[in-house]
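To whoever is on call:

I kicked off a structure prediction for a single chain this morning and the downstream step that reads the tokens threw a length-mismatch warning. I double-checked the sequence; it's 130 residues and nothing unusual in it as far as I can see. Pasting both halves so you can look.
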Amino acid sequence: MGVSASGGPQLLYRVDAEGRAVPFAPAAGQVTSNAEPGRFVFSPDGTRAGFLLPGLGGYCADLETVVLANVATGAETHPAMPTGMGWADAVWFGPTGIPYASMAAAPPGCVGGSRRVVASGPAGQARRPA
């Protein structure tokens, strides 16, 4: 982690109907960054969440990676990015619950910013969809 424009690692919380906030998962188990997570999506069965976690590194050096989380337990996985990919600009779940992401080597507008879609395979390893 580097210097944070957002004030440090951004932890996730669950908020119940009465407005009480509790950590989504133990802080030590959460994947954190130096910026706030965003673009949350949920699997069709509601058991998993996917979101993008940015890392601020300066112009054309920022990272944006995918995190997948178990909604019941809060357990988070950080699927490996394919070789040469450092920027994810979208994550979504297909109708059967397979997570997909659109990735590029660099942020939009930077050299290497062409996109490709990948799916998360066994143990969270990235693979090209069939």
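Update from on-call: the warning came from a stale cache, not from the record. Cleared it. Sanity check on the structure: The chain has one domain: 13-127.
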